[in-house]
Design brief:
There is one protein chain. With about 600 residues, the protein is an alpha/beta fold. It is about 50% helix and about 10% strand. It has 23 helices and 14 strands. A 6-stranded parallel sheet has the order 4-3-2-10-1-9. A hairpin with a 4-residue loop joins strand 13 and strand 14. Helix 2 packs antiparallel against helix 9 and helix 7 packs across helix 11. The longest helix is centred in the C-terminal third of the chain and has 32 residues.
């Protein structure tokens, strides 16, 4: 009932608000550990920004936009330092009076080709009124815009249909077959760098099958070690003394404040994750010695964009705030270089219609809710009545699930694109049947009693579970991404949380019935259980699922907050009483 009410109907946007709040909380946990490996990807990425200070009378003494000649000089100066690739996140879509694109950028493009340095220019969105860049930029253009919720970075986009292209004023030549998908900024760079051998750990398959899902961005929080050589930012936390303990402290501090509602601006970081150089450093008159620039650009991927007041090319990052769009491209490439094909992505959708969208994360959340319901239900009912009712529910759910699976199998033979829509209710019925089986056999009650009477064994099982997950991470070489000591500390904290939850649940079982009736139970243990469940799901998601965690973990927190097992004035009892005829606790007593 809760799942249908809050997830599907979403009254007062409670589900949306929970996603936003949990996104901040979970970003504080995950982003604090980003870039922990010995050779992080950010050491191979730099960003050049045109800022308001660069345009001031102290330096360029001009207004925006800069002349094409100034941009070409900046790009030529980057080439002097020997970069690995360059992406220009500024759109040059037309000739200007007195300036020719061919005369200005032609020599720079030719030089980049001779040096073997990939050079890309921003085209804008794919379709939507955005035309191809004029020559000589046409062959070097790259998609840098899209329509997608914040936090998602598409890697491959399907070009508009011929009808949409005609409506937008497109003039595609007849007989020319349009590509099925077009790479977007960061992925186009990644694919090019993999082909050149610059990135060594690339997968063999670069198709839609591997990179078709949009990337869910992970952002680092600390400034690069040498940022202060080029530009200082107040409020930064540089990685001058980067230690796993400090990372764990950052995650705990940010996560705790976000969890208890004290998420304010002072938690946000105020610096860029990648080495950021103001464009004035690339002026030949202001910085004549190119050797001073080589540490910031040599063999690095360089992104060239703007940070100007009034420029609307910004993105909102949960733990950082508003950032220029050029940093989003840099962060997306950083994610690809770090995770390769195991990047975090949006879960696949089971149902996608105009009025209803349900994805795999929400299905998993539904199953998790059922098990919590099984535990709550078995705690407030006698075993005898649980068995009788659960047996009937189990039989009905299994019969309905069998019918749905049969219909889905027949539909798969006739309409393969629609059969999966029946698999969602079949999965839900499977969860109901599994929960009913747990009711009928008193599984959750038995587990709770076993934990309360065998606390030492349960604690040992918690440590074995944490050690096993650590072994899986080390075996799959994930310690090269996060650092071994960071993983060791995180799994140690997970074991501690599990042990505390075991101890508090055991102490609750020992409370007297009188204390239970007074409502003096479960509040601290429920909060601790919420944190523990999120921690376990966090580990499973990081290792296996690779989904945006706010899509499903955040609502588990809301469910636990609304849990009212045994409360006679609550919503659950007010619905169950007329449906089942069951008496409320004070009536039955």
């Amino acid at each position: 009932m809760f799942w249908v009410l809050f997830k599907l109907l979403d009254p007062l946007a409670m589900e949306s608000a929970t996603k936003q709040s949990s996104a901040r909380f979970l970003a504080g946990l995950s982003d604090a550990f980003y870039g922990m490996q010995d050779s992080p990807a950010r050491d191979r990425i730099s960003v050049v920004e045109v800022t308001d200070k660069d345009l001031s009378g102290e330096y360029f003494a001009t207004t925006w936009p800069l002349t094409y000649a100034r941009h070409a000089e900046v790009i030529d100066r980057m080439l002097d330092a020997g970069p690995a690739a360059i992406m220009v996140d500024i759109r040059f879509n037309a000739e200007r009076a007195g300036e020719s694109l061919q005369d200005t950028f032609g020599p720079v493009i030719a030089r980049a080709k001779r040096m073997g340095v990939p050079l890309f220019f921003a085209r804008g969105q794919l379709g939507g009124g955005y035309d191809d860049l004029p020559e000589p930029l046409t062959q070097s253009q790259i998609i840098n815009g899209w329509k997608m919720p914040a936090g998602f970075y598409p890697l491959l986009l399907a070009p508009p249909s011929p009808q949409a292209a005609d409506e937008d004023g497109g003039d595609e030549e007849e007989g020319e077959e349009a590509p099925k998908t077009v790479p977007v900024g960061a992925f186009a760079l990644y694919r090019t760098l993999c082909a050149s051998g610059w990135q060594k750990s690339c997968p063999a398959d670069m198709s839609d099958h591997t990179f078709g899902q949009p990337l869910v961005e992970r952002w680092g929080l600390r400034a690069p070690r040498y940022q202060e050589l080029y530009a200082k930012t107040d409020g930064c936390l540089p990685d001058t003394h980067d230690m796993p303990v400090l990372r764990v402290w950052d995650a705990a501090r940010i996560g705790a404040r976000a969890l208890f509602g004290y998420f304010s601006e002072d938690i946000r970081q105020k610096c860029q994750y990648h080495l950021t150089v103001p464009v004035r450093y690339l002026d030949r008159n202001l910085e004549p010695d190119v050797r001073n620039l080589e540490p910031a650009f040599r063999n690095r991927v360089v992104f060239y964009g703007t940070r100007i007041n009034g420029d609307h090319d910004v993105v909102d990052v949960p733990m950082i705030g508003q950032e220029p769009g050029v940093h989003e491209h840099a962060m997306a490439l950083d994610n690809l270089l770090t995770y390769n094909e195991r990047y975090f992505r949006e879960p696949g959708e089971w149902i996608s219609t105009r009025w209803l969208k349900i994805d795999s994360a929400e299905c998993l959340e539904f199953v998790v809710w059922l098990f919590f319901a099984a535990y709550s239900y078995s705690m407030i009912h006698e075993p005898a009545c649980v068995s009788a009712r659960a047996s009937r529910v189990l039989t009905a759910a299994c019969v309905a699930m069998s019918v749905l699976l049969g219909v889905a199998t027949g539909l798969y033979a006739t309409n393969p694109d629609r059969w999966h829509m029946l698999m969602l209710p079949a999965l839900g019925l499977f969860g109901v049947a599994l929960a009913a089986w747990a009711y009928a056999h008193h599984a959750t009650r038995s587990i709770g009693l076993w934990i309360s009477t065998n606390r030492s064994r349960a604690i040992m099982a918690a440590f074995v579970f944490s050690a096993s997950m650590l072994g899986v991470d080390v075996g799959l070489l994930r310690h090269s991404t996060y650092g071994f000591w960071a993983l060791f500390l995180v799994y140690g904290l997970l074991a501690v949380l599990l042990c505390l939850s075991i101890l508090t649940s055991a102490s609750n079982d020992q409370n007297t019935e009188k204390e239970r009736e007074k409502g003096k139970r479960y509040y601290f243990s429920k909060l601790l259980l919420s944190v523990t469940v999120v921690a376990v799901m966090f580990v499973i998601n990081e290792d296996l699922l690779l989904w945006p965690m706010e899509d499903w973990i955040g609502f588990v927190l809301l469910w636990l907050a609304l849990s009212e097992a045994g409360e006679d004035t609550g919503f659950v009892w007010s619905v169950l009483t007329p449906l089942t005829g069951e008496k409320k606790p004070e009536e039955s007593s």
